[in-house]
Amino acid sequence: MKRSLLFVAILLAPLSALPAATPAPRPNILLILADDLGYADLGPHGCKDIPTPNIDRIAARGVRFTDAYANGSFCTPTRAALLSGRYQHRSGMEDLSNVSGPLPKAVRTLPDRLRAAGYTTGMVGKWHLGDQAGFTPVDRGFDEFFGFTGGGHFYLPKANARGEYTAPLLRNREPLNEQRYLTDAFGEEAAAFVGRQRDATKPFFLYLAFNAVHTPLEATEKYLQRFPEITEPRRRTYAAMLSAMDDAVGRVLAQLEQTGKLTNTLVFFTNDNGGPTTRNAVNGSRNTPLRGSKCETFEGGIRVPLFVQWPGVLAAGTVYREPVISFDLSATIAAAAGADADGFEGVDLVPFVTGKKSGAPHDVLFWRNRTRSNNYAARAGDWKFVHSTEGSEQPGPQQKPGRDLLFNLAADLGEQTDLAAQHPEKLTALKQRYDAWSAAVDADCRKLGREPMPAAPARAPAPSAPKPGKAR
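User: That's the sequence. What structure does it adopt?
Assistant: Structure tokens below.
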């Protein structure tokens, strides 16, 4: 009888008295950012002449985003959006950091939020958000840093050279006499950071920001020898540099696997802007089938690869087709880590990819680049308003003047058919939304004590002289 009563008591015990289920461990996070990579230069995007098996594997094992965008059309702006989780214009980061100044201290960074949430934070690579004391990576939330703080660097040691691209690499704040090929060094240092977390009880966040494949075009013979069939010198060196970056990515992924961390690591691979195919740091990249280049707000300047892998959460081989943007990665990371995301404008993408949320993450997305030009754009659904200068094929920084254009990307991904005359109401509506957004971000910028970058004056088209021996 006593046993029966005990059995009944157990059955009737409140659920609150039962032991709670063990929560799933928070993931480690690896955010890989390429620099000036061409949209068409990876296997999932159709590249045939440059194998990138390690990068491609991230897409195969996770999600490929077809309509992913960078927040900026060149270096610093996208990095500022990633680290702040907001449109970079709100913090005055519309130009390179040596022009705009460093990311303001009033802006709380993603690594700072993750560290407060209990993460070990590391960065390897290119910073480009301030090199002054108080504004370097170890001042802005990273426990460890290996890399450079400026906008670019030589890949091979240069004797007696001067300038920003020859500045010593840093380990935290200490200058180094680094002799390795730079992309190799970044891969090795990132893998070493992962190795140091083998027995750690805390999760980690690693931001691996390559300067590859940004100019200068430099590669070692080891990588050049992989591409004897590419006869165009610039494309061959670019291919070698991209192959080196893929090896470096593979080295880090292998270390994750060897340490048993891979199955609980959220991995991102993306790019800071479109490939520079015409006027700025041209490197041999290709953006096919997109129109435009780095620094422009045509698709070729802002649409980027985005591959995301999270075993057990994101199904392998998934393709996601709604528009997303760089600062969505910040929000996704914060959500996965359980970190504070107050003030973020990005959206956690996981519920959308897994089907827990329907619809598009964003109603509208905006771009603005006033640096030396006056390029801007807005996308709502399949409709995109563009006002952008366009690089010339002529040597030097020639530009075709910008004008208002309207495209339907579902039917015209290459932005070849301007529909402004056929749909003036859509053009007007998108321009009005852009103008309201532009005024709002400028107001926020002023609240931080910074004056927004003024619009660049209109430029006349550069005279075009035909190339010798070529008719135009």
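Residues 233-258 form the longest helix (26 residues).
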